Amino acid sequence: MSAPFEERSGVVPCGTPWGRWYQTLEEVFIEVRVPPGTRAGDVRCSLQSRHIALSVRGQEVLQGKLFDSTITDEGTWTLEDRKLIRIVLMKTNRDAGNCWTSLLENEYAADPWVQDQMQRKLTLERFQRENPGFDFSGAEISGNYSKGGPDFSSLEK
């Protein structure tokens, strides 16, 4: 069995002062570095459809309105090795054209190059889903890939 597309193709991270975030067609991943030895009891994390709030040991780390909506019941957070918090949000809109340009509405935006690479990756991921069995992990995409790339769904098979 082959690994999921996003594992084979790598991630396109957007660095932040507290860590990084990246996305796939379905999910947004947030990785927050925390002081070594942090315990789960030190963490307060609220995940709502359009809002996130994270504090560690009483210090606010991340708070605000998300770029787009998520499925509240599907959001999770974990503390790994007592030094990294990983938050996984499930996107409500899972089109390749729904490439988040920032994590929050007005914060943690991807620079133009990173945004371009994120959109390319989501477009390739979409092609992989539409064409199971083909390996797109080493593929390069050029041309019109903005907003998810060309739509081939109306073509006869």
Automatic annotation (TrEMBL):
<keyword id="KW-0963">Cytoplasm</keyword>
<dbReference type="GO" id="GO:0051082">
    <property type="term" value="F:unfolded protein binding"/>
</dbReference>
<dbReference type="InterPro" id="IPR008978">
    <property type="entry name" value="HSP20-like_chaperone"/>
</dbReference>
<feature type="domain" description="CS">
    <location>
        <begin position="14"/>
        <end position="104"/>
    </location>
</feature>
<dbReference type="InterPro" id="IPR037898">
    <property type="entry name" value="NudC_fam"/>
</dbReference>
<dbReference type="GO" id="GO:0005813">
    <property type="term" value="C:centrosome"/>
</dbReference>
<protein>
    <recommendedName>
        <fullName>NudC domain-containing protein 2</fullName>
    </recommendedName>
</protein>
<dbReference type="InterPro" id="IPR007052">
    <property type="entry name" value="CS_dom"/>
</dbReference>
<dbReference type="InterPro" id="IPR037902">
    <property type="entry name" value="p23_NUDCD2"/>
</dbReference>
<keyword id="KW-0206">Cytoskeleton</keyword>
<keyword id="KW-0597">Phosphoprotein</keyword>
<dbReference type="GO" id="GO:0005737">
    <property type="term" value="C:cytoplasm"/>
</dbReference>
<keyword id="KW-0007">Acetylation</keyword>
<dbReference type="GO" id="GO:0006457">
    <property type="term" value="P:protein folding"/>
</dbReference>
<feature type="region of interest" description="Disordered">
    <location>
        <begin position="138"/>
        <end position="157"/>
    </location>
</feature>
<keyword id="KW-0995">Kinetochore</keyword>
<comment type="function">
    <text>May regulate the LIS1/dynein pathway by stabilizing LIS1 with Hsp90 chaperone.</text>
</comment>
<dbReference type="GO" id="GO:0000776">
    <property type="term" value="C:kinetochore"/>
</dbReference>
<keyword id="KW-0137">Centromere</keyword>
<dbReference type="GO" id="GO:0000922">
    <property type="term" value="C:spindle pole"/>
</dbReference>
<comment type="subunit">
    <text>Interacts with LIS1.</text>
</comment>
<dbReference type="Pfam" id="PF04969">
    <property type="entry name" value="CS"/>
</dbReference>
<keyword id="KW-0158">Chromosome</keyword>
